[in-house]
What does this fold into?
Amino acid sequence: MAFATSALVRSLSTSASRQAAIKHVTVIGGGLMGTGITQVAAQSGHNVTMCDVSDDIVQKGLARIQDSLKRVVKKKYKDDPTAGQKFFDSTMENIRIDTNVERVAASTDLVIEAIIENLDIKQKLFSSLDKVAPQHTIFASNTSSLPIKDIASTCERQDRFGGLHFFNPVPVMKLVEVVRFGATSNETFQSLTDFGQAVGKTTVSCKDTPGFIVNRLLVPYMMEAVRMLERGEASARDIDTAMKLGAGYPMGPFELCDYVGLDTTKFIVQGWHELDPDQPLFKPSELVNKLVAEGKLGMKSGEGFYSYKK
Ligand SMILES: CCCCCCCC(=O)CC(=O)SCCNC(=O)CCNC(=O)[C@H](O)C(C)(C)COP(=O)(O)OP(=O)(O)OC[C@H]1O[C@@H](n2cnc3c(N)ncnc32)[C@H](O)[C@@H]1OP(=O)(O)O
Ligand SMILES: NC(=O)C1=CN([C@@H]2O[C@H](COP(=O)(O)OP(=O)(O)OC[C@H]3O[C@@H](n4cnc5c(N)ncnc54)[C@H](O)[C@@H]3O)[C@@H](O)[C@H]2O)C=CC1
It folds into this structure.
């Protein structure tokens, strides 16, 4: 069977007594996160369809997955290129691409949404999928900052809804935050946890609070670095160097902002500011907003705090 690998079999055996294991996954959004989630799900033997709004975007997403998978193969199979090629081919065989999300969701076990960080657009998407997806299908959002409860609010299947928050770059970062809100059932929470582990990640359990665990701590730190630059206290380069060499972070806060995407950064901070306008930690940054208005979104657009143009 093309899609069965040891990871999937393991996932089946651990969760079979609770409910049917997840075999077919639909990932909506073929950007930074959607491609990474598609890759790790396909690598672990799941049958994955990645959807986005245009052929061009899904094709580019597929090319990004191939590049990333080559890095994984080079590392994992450095002494056995034949096995590496087999792993590459079988992973790519597990991936389909599509632009019709409703058609795909009509026969899937799990939908993972990784589209832009906008509540209205996410709600509209899930509301339409709720009408076509089978009863058993679980919905999950990869949102960085929006309440899962709000994203789920337009759906009937409240009990089969939760958060699966992956980290960028997904093939490398080892954590998944599994988020439940009041209506998420125990079975759904367990299935999402099993899925996170089946794709090779360590899972932590989170309540539906702003930023869950990681971003509630990371976002204030990153925004304080931006405010430090705005106050003229140090340059972006020096702040990055200081945090890498003095605090042991793999990337400085400005490198990380560019890596995450300044549009996503702006959406997160703006959303939290609207929820809690008096909280100084969530104050939007004029500098970030200006860069976004200029189309400087970070690495993905070739320029952000730094330039990546060759
Ligand atoms: C203010 C609001 C903002 C809030 C934002 C919130 C966003 C969210 O919701 C949550 C998030 O994801 S936050 C971001 C979390 N990620 C990080 O902190 C990444 C920090 N950076 C790193 O870990 C390394 O620089 C990194 C791993 C990226 C690169 O490492 P290096 O600098 O050492 O570079 P390489 O030598 O190229 O890579 C190291 C190993 O990793 C492999 N690799 C890297 N990228 C890959 C990718 N995309 N696919 C597959 N493999 C990849 C690479 O091959 C290399 O492997 P080895 O050579 O064997 O070590
Ligand atoms: N960038 C990061 O480091 C992280 C982002 N996230 C979250 O993941 C989600 C996606 O973020 P990224 O991948 O960075 O964004 P991105 O901008 O790289 O990709 C978003 C993709 O969604 C597509 N899209 C937009 N509306 C759509 C729709 N209605 N149907 C199908 N596709 C649609 C866009 O065409 C785009 O390709 C966001 O909720 C973000 O907060 C979570 C963890 C880390």
